[in-house]
Amino acid sequence: MSLEQLEGEIIGCRRCPRLVAWRELVAREKRAAFAGETYWGRPIPGFGDPAARVLLLGLAPAAHGANRTGRVFTGDRSGDFLFAALHRTGFANQPTSVRADDGLALRDAWIMAAVRCAPPANKPSPIERDTCLPYAVRELDMLEHVRVIVCLGAFAWAAALRLLAARGVVTGPPRPRFGHGAELASEPELLGCFHPSQQNTFTGKLTPAMLDEVLLRARELASAA
């Protein structure tokens, strides 16, 4: 199976009734600011450079971001912050991403979410999380050059540990704890980063310099692996 075939399988997934109902409800009712747009309203596949050495792992699509645009982190404030940093550090050809066909291209980076559908209150259930995990396992298997996973938030860190366990990689006990800048020498290596949510970026918990530092560290680790 190719990445393109896996993408088609992900897009057609309807395994989690609560998530299917929510993503489609949001796509019908829409936010007033996007009332004239056609929402994607389906699961979100990963995207980027198939030869990437750095994988960025997020939580789940935003209801009016990726669930609207069809591309992870595209069209929301978290993505604005992330793509600007990816551009500054040489992983992206442009600093913004507003729609799936806007010309954005990633270099040496791939982005995917641990859960592929927008969840109510941005909180997938444990069952939904585990149902989606095999997609990440298969996607990572196809991304043969990935050496570092940048985990955007504690949920992504926990998901990455489950992803490694599913691939037979032993990481404990004790279980490594998430933190900004935390590193786990595994294969691939894990690197923690606060999520670029408005809650973190507006309060200064995560600054542009902090995110840049993590991305540059990811490149350093990938080059050394």
Give a quick precis of the structure.
It contains eight helices and six strands. With 225 residues, it is α/β, with parallel strands linked by helices. It has a single domain, classed as Uracil-DNA Glycosylase, subunit E (3-Layer(aba) Sandwich).
Explain this structure.
This protein has about 220 residues and is of the alpha/beta class. It has one domain: Uracil-DNA Glycosylase, subunit E (3-Layer(aba) Sandwich), CATH 3.40.470.10. The protein is about 40% helix and about 10% strand. The chain is built from 8 helices and 6 strands. Strands 1-3-2-4-6-5 form a 6-stranded mixed beta sheet. A hairpin with a 4-residue loop joins strand 5 and strand 6. Helix 4 crosses helix 8 and helix 5 packs across helix 6. It is globular, with a radius of gyration of 16 Å. The model has no long low-confidence stretch (mean pLDDT about 95).
What's the layout of helices and strands?
Layout: H1 3-11, H2 17-29, E1 47-48, E2 54-58, H3 66-69, H4 77-88, E3 109-113, H5 126-142, E4 148-152, H6 154-166, E5 183-184, E6 189-193, H7 198-201, H8 208-224
Parallel strand pairs: 2-3, 2-4, 4-6
Antiparallel strand pairs: 1-3, 5-6
Helix pairs in contact: 4-8, 5-6
Identify the strand order in the major beta sheet: 1-3-2-4-6-5
> What fraction strand?
5-15%
Secondary-structure arrangement, i.e. CATH architecture: 3-Layer(aba) Sandwich
What is the strand tally? 6
Mean pLDDT: 96
